[in-house]
Write a structure and sequence with these properties.
single chain; 196 residues; alpha+beta; Jelly Rolls; 2 domains; 4-stranded antiparallel β-sheet; 1 helix; 31% helix; 33% strand; rod-shaped
């Protein structure tokens, strides 16, 4: 009987120890579960912040893209220092270029790169320029050696919002109606884009 009683006491002690270990394990599991839930809440909060930043970047992405390209001169008989108007607009992201008056108006402040090509009549000098706010930013003198020979010119310009840029020529005494040539292969154009 003593032996049986001793075995029962030993078994009861082991059961109590097992119950104690189970209670400790249960507490550890509950703590781990709480930590996991807190970490998940933190991760979900960070995901929401990243999604908001992504939406903001996506909304901004289209607004910072400023680029245009237009060709086909409205009037080949331009007077000295008259703005060339290029009527066929093939690109106008940011709506900065006007095919009505030939001006590019900066929708946002920044550094812009402009490029233009003019094609001339044979043996007629053309003094060309890209102008911004009345200041010449790129210029040169060109005399086509044959009909339809073209020259291109470019320049980078720092502009504030609302400032304008355009292409113009000086005929250097030649009749202005005899200066510019254009056909289906030789295009006169004006293009530009925001660098930053």
């Amino acid at each position: 009987m003593r032996e049986t009683h001793g075995n029962m006491m030993d078994t009861e002690r082991r059961i109590q120890e097992a119950q104690q270990k189970m209670a400790e394990t249960h507490a550890e599991i509950m703590t781990a579960q709480k930590n996991i839930q807190e970490n998940l809440a933190d991760i979900n909060e960070k995901i929401k912040l990243l999604e908001q930043k992504d939406e903001m970047l996506e909304a901004r992405r289209g607004k910072d893209v400023i680029a245009f390209r237009a060709h086909k001169v409205a009037d080949k008989s331009v007077a000295d220092n008259q703005v060339f108007v290029f009527t066929k607009v093939v690109l106008n992201e940011g709506n900065g270029y006007s095919s009505t008056n030939g001006y590019f108006t900066a929708p946002i402040s920044g550094i812009y790169f402009f490029n233009s090509q003019l094609c001339g009549m044979e043996n007629r000098y053309i003094a060309y320029a890209i102008v911004s706010q009345g200041d010449t930013r790129s210029s040169g003198l060109f005399m086509p050696y044959k009909l339809g020979t073209c020259t291109s010119f470019s320049g980078a310009v720092r502009m504030r919002i609302g400032e304008r840029a355009w292409v113009t020529i000086n005929s250097n005494g030649s009749p202005s109606s005899d200066l510019i040539y254009e056909d289906s292969r030789e295009w006169n154009y004006f293009s530009g884009f925001l660098i930053r």
